[in-house]
Amino acid sequence: MLTSDFDYDLPPELIAQEPAPDRDGCRLLVMDRATGALEDRVFRDIVDYLHPGDVLVANETRVMPARLIGKKRGTGGAAEVFLLRQHGTPTQNRSALWEVLVRPGKRLKPGSGAVVDFADAAGNTVLSAEVVDWAQNAQKGERVARLSTTLPSLDEALHAVGRTPLPPYIKDYAGDEELYQTVYSRRESSAAAPTAGLHFTPALIDRLREKGVGWETVELEVGLDTFRIVDEDDPERHVIHTEFYTVGQRTADAVNEARERGGRVVAVGTTSVRSLESAWDAEAGRLVPKDREATSLYILPGYEFHAVDALITNFHVPRSTLMMLVSAFSTRDNIMAAYAHAVAERYRMLSFGDAMLIG
């Protein structure tokens, strides 16, 4: 198995630069997990493929205003700080440590006393970031920065100066940033959206519930590594990123009950897959609750899925761990054939693009 086995030709013009006019009006490619058979549908038709007793599990995380653009104290030079995750125990005060990415990296090194100031719309400096250390096991130049604010809370300061980050392949989007949030999102804890959920509307969720399909949630704090390709020729040598996830008691009970009565567990997105599979207790043969635990679960072809029976997902970046995950859920040949079909049929690809149902 080689990383190049998960490559495909992605025409740049197919990378969606804005969301579909209607969330549930995007296209849906339905693929039979076992045979690879394909159907072209519209996302709201997903109701036809789900049955009473099935349970959908979605990642309810919300994207943080994680992109901070400011000026380096002392020189006034432009600088950017990108928040990845809070360092240590999360707090809600006026100062906290965060793991971050910075630009320019050469001028914002730990130990140099580097501080970046961020101003609100009125030009008042309300937030500062001091680069204090390298992040543990830093592989992409991650640092630890101490954020501090003059406002009542860091949350208020971040919303005053921060921007919602978009994937690097989306250029110059000037639309409503709320369209990069799911309609059911709650706590801000991610640097990127769980994009498979962007297609759901409150009305569509209600239709599913009326049909007897359950709706439950998990939380996985999505990191930027979700966009990165695998650099190693041998994917098994790749070190996957660590993310934090939570599976509540209600969701664990709902999944276990669905499986006991013959219903399917349908993961909304790869982040839900990683959460559910990470929370699976092999010895007990059931899902168990987890509270913000770390997972480095790396799903490659050959992996045996325990908690997930069907998957709703977007189309992914070539040579990514997500291509490997969806290939593991079916077969590499089925997935590559589906992607070739999607490209030929001019599906819209990646985060703002169309969706797949693999079941």
UniProtKB/TrEMBL annotation:
Enzyme Commission number: 2.4.99.17
Keywords in alphabetical order: Cytoplasm, Glycosyltransferase, Isomerase, Queuosine biosynthesis, S-adenosyl-L-methionine, Transferase
Protein name in UniProt: S-adenosylmethionine:tRNA ribosyltransferase-isomerase
Family: Belongs to the QueA family.
Gene it is expressed from: queA
Pathway: tRNA modification; tRNA-queuosine biosynthesis
GO CC annotations, alphabetized: cytoplasm
NCBIfam families, per database record: PRK00147.1, queA
GO MF term set: S-adenosylmethionine:tRNA ribosyltransferase-isomerase activity
Subunit structure: Monomer.
Entry keyword annotation includes Hydrolase: no
Known catalytic reactions: 7-aminomethyl-7-carbaguanosine(34) in tRNA + S-adenosyl-L-methionine = epoxyqueuosine(34) in tRNA + adenine + L-methionine + 2 H(+)
The organism's place on the tree of life at top rank: Bacteria
Location in the cell: Cytoplasm
Gene3D superfamilies (alphabetical): QueA-like
Main localization (coarse): cytoplasm
Single GO biological process annotation from the record: tRNA queuosine(34) biosynthetic process
UniProt entry tagged with the keyword Isomerase: yes
Function: Transfers and isomerizes the ribose moiety from AdoMet to the 7-aminomethyl group of 7-deazaguanine (preQ1-tRNA) to give epoxyqueuosine (oQ-tRNA).
